[in-house]
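Hi support team,

I'm filing this because I wasn't sure whether my run with coenzyme A finished correctly. The job status page said complete, but I'd like someone to confirm that the output block is well-formed before I use it downstream. Pasting the exact inputs I used:
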Amino acid sequence: MTAVITRVVPIERIATARLVLRRPTLADLDAVYAYASDPAITTYMGWARHESPETTRAFLQMRDEEWEQRGTGTYVAELGDTGVVIGSTGLHVYDDAPAATGYIIARPWWGHGYATEALRAMLALARSRGMPRVEASCHPENTGSRRVLEKCGMRHERTLEDHLVFPNLSGELQDLLVFAIEL
Ligand SMILES: CC(C)(COP(=O)(O)OP(=O)(O)OC[C@H]1O[C@@H](n2cnc3c(N)ncnc32)[C@H](O)[C@@H]1OP(=O)(O)O)[C@@H](O)C(=O)NCCC(=O)NCCS
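And here is everything the job wrote out:
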């Protein structure tokens, strides 16, 4: 019998009510650097804030490789009506772990429900792709992020004690909350 090989077509652009979520390009460098270098935004991120646009360039190249290899990855979030990039989200897949998501929104646009809208879109994407489960993690003091996860139906499943250094916070290991949803 002839084997049938199917390849899932990457979904590089998703329109929600107010956002366009799309695969990043190097043209997004300035917008991504603006929030990825902001100490007030990156406090609770698991990666070190970007010290120069060159870090952002390397980050975008890495994300592009992920898209090439996995057919999914980071999405920048554009305001649908202006095209302004206000942050990013993503759906990341691995060989040996459940799919993972996350989000970051630039400060001027906090408190408008954009992270919630972006995360809901990522969960809908995961569901449409037949992924059984998506995980996300956050620092225990990142109250806004916890709220976003809960609003989207993700549940706090476990706490990993003294698990991760948050490089923009301190050099010490911190607890990590793991949230998950079964789709
Ligand atoms: C966390 C973050 C993504 C939220 O983005 P946002 O677009 O403002 O989120 P939303 O508007 O969709 O929802 C935020 C919710 O958290 C609540 N919230 C925000 N800050 C809060 C705080 N300090 N204490 C309690 N609730 C808080 C809001 O009231 C809102 O809940 P509500 O709709 O019930 O009122 C944004 O602040 C951010 O990018 N922070 C820096 C990056 C980051 O921490 N990313 C997550 C890493 S795990």
